[in-house]
Every structure is written in structure tokens, then in C-alpha cells.
Design brief:
alpha+beta; about 280 residues; about 45% helix
Length: about 280
């Protein structure tokens, strides 16, 4: 589902992940679109309770704020590209308030070759290169996937997500947010559960954990600094909520990131592990 009102014009993040054993990325949501291209192996994705499987040369496209999780039981190699939906304005306008009838679809030979050439093989991926890749993906998407109305109360969730992503560092009770947005707490709580399948506290915690995980990947800030920057009152609260959402503690998460970046990368015909940020 596409949400307006949140400033998404920050960066495009690209990475290639290689997993040689069971891989689990627990249920979560985020405010950007997420595109996965499976280059080898198999990756299962569950979106709003519906499980699908993607194999070599298939895409997974997740819309902003779709609750999802990934699992893989064997060796897998996949490219993940997260981007602000505002980067594709025509598609964003067409798909506003909607979502795909399915998450997994086939990648054309052209799309695969573009991602290989412009993202995997090219050291300095440009905005123009990633744009060509995303346009090729959208061409495949529109040929194979139907846009359907989402269950999301678009207007209410627009206001809520905009408010939470702007103010997540603050102490935000449901009553406080409901009052700020002009809704009753009961109504807002009902809309959150209907849209995301979680309560208000879990939604706010997911947003904070998403921000914290980004800082764990990209900064050398202390755990206390990350906790405070992510809206947690103390490090104990941060550790408890982060582990509940991700399955690992913040320190374990950071350790896994370091091990992943230094591990050997030879898998099938794809030897590279990459991490790129493209600012737009």
C-alpha cells in the first residue's frame, strides 16, 4: 500500500545478501518500498499472512507499510533495494491506496541483466542506472500483477504514519497521538489493528526498531546513543523491545552485520556482496 504525507526522499539503499543456512527476517513493516531480486536459491516471503516463494530470477515487491517476513531454509543469494516510493511518482499516484495482488513475479531477462550490469557489476551505481532497473521492474510488474484496493484506511493511516515517523523519538502514548490527530483512541486502535494486524505499541516499536537497525548497520554510535535516538527511554527498554521484534539483541544484530560483511562470498555465479546508498 502506498502512503502519502511522509518525507521519503532520503536515499535508495541497495545490498546483496548471501545466506548459507536457515535465514529468518521476522515480521516487520517500514515506510519505504522494498524490492528483492532472487539471484540464486529460494526465498519465502509472507505478506499480511499470505506466503509466497521466489526462486532464481524472480522479483518480490513490497509496498510501504505491508507487514512481511522472509525465510529461507537453504543457500540463497538475493539483492534487496529499498527506495522512497516518491522516486516513482507516476506509479505512486496510480497505486495510492492500493497494493499488488501478489508479491512475487518473474523478472525479465532485460531486468536481470540491467541489475547485474548497473548494480552488481558497476562499482558506482548512478541514479540513472537504478532508475533504468526500477523501470524495467515496473514493466514486469504491470504485465503480471494487478493493483487491488488495500484494506488500509488511507486517510487516517496517512496522518498516523506521518505523525509517528516525524515524532517517534518522543514519548508517544496512544491517547496523545489520537488527540493530536483528532481521533478517539478506540477508533485509532481499531484502524491500526485492521491495517497492520498489530496494536499501537507494536506499530510504534516496529518503527523505532526499523530506525535503530539502520543506525546499527551504518554508524558506530553506542547502544545508549542509538536507544535515545530511536525513541527508547533507556537501553534496557531498547534491548527488550528490539529483541522481541527481531529475535536478536541489538549487539547480536550488529555482530551479525559485521560477520556478514567479512565472510567469503562465493556462491554460484554471483561472487559479490555489496552495500550501496544512492542519494537522490
Amino acid at each position: 500500500m502506498l502512503v502519502q504525507g511522509v518525507d521519503l526522499s532520503v536515499r535508495i539503499n541497495i545490498r546483496c545478501d548471501i545466506h548459507r543456512q536457515k535465514y529468518i527476517c521476522r515480521k516487520h513493516i517500514h515506510h519505504f518500498a522494498e524490492l528483492v531480486l532472487v539471484l540464486d536459491g529460494k526465498l519465502d516471503v509472507t505478506v499480511n499472512g499470505k506466503k509466497e516463494s521466489a526462486t532464481k530470477n524472480q522479483f518480490i515487491l513490497l509496498f510501504p507499510f505491508q507487514k512481511h517476513e522472509y525465510t529461507s531454509d537453504d543457500v540463497s543469494y538475493f539483492l534487496i533495494c529499498t527506495f522512497p516510493i516518491s522516486y516513482l511518482p507516476d506509479f505512486a499516484a496510480k497505486a495510492y491506496g492500493k497494493c499488488g495482488s501478489k508479491a512475487v513475479f518473474d523478472a525479465s531477462d532485460l531486468a536481470v541483466k540491467l541489475f547485474e550490469r548497473k548494480v552488481i557489476d558497476e562499482e558506482n551505481t548512478t541514479v540513472y542506472g537504478i532508475n533504468a532497473c526500477l523501470q524495467a521492474m515496473l514493466d514486469d510488474f504491470t504485465e503480471q500483477v494487478e493493483l487491488i484496493e488495500s484494506d488500509m484506511n488511507t486517510s487516517t493511516m496517512d496522518k498516523l504514519t506521518c505523525y509517528l515517523y516525524t515524532n517517534y523519538k518522543e514519548a508517544l502514548s496512544l491517547n496523545h497521538v489520537a488527540h493530536a490527530l483528532g481521533y478517539s483512541p478506540n477508533y485509532l486502535s481499531h484502524c491500526i489493528f485492521k491495517t497492520f494486524g498489530m496494536n499501537y505499541r507494536s506499530l510504534l516499536g516496529s518503527i523505532r526498531a526499523d530506525h535503530a537497525s539502520d543506525m546499527l548497520k551504518k554508524t558506530n554510535m553506542s547502544m545508549m546513543e542509538i536507544a535515545l535516538e530511536s525513541g527508547y527511554p533507556n537501553i534496557r527498554s531498547f534491548q527488550r523491545h528490539f529483541k522481541a521484534l527481531t529475535g536478536v539483541s541489538p549487539s547480536e544484530y550488529k555482530s551479525k552485520i559485521k560477520k556478514s560483511s567479512s565472510a567469503p562470498t562465493q556462491v554460484s555465479a554471483y561472487p559479490k556482496r555489496i552495500q550501496k546508498d544512492i542519494f537522490i
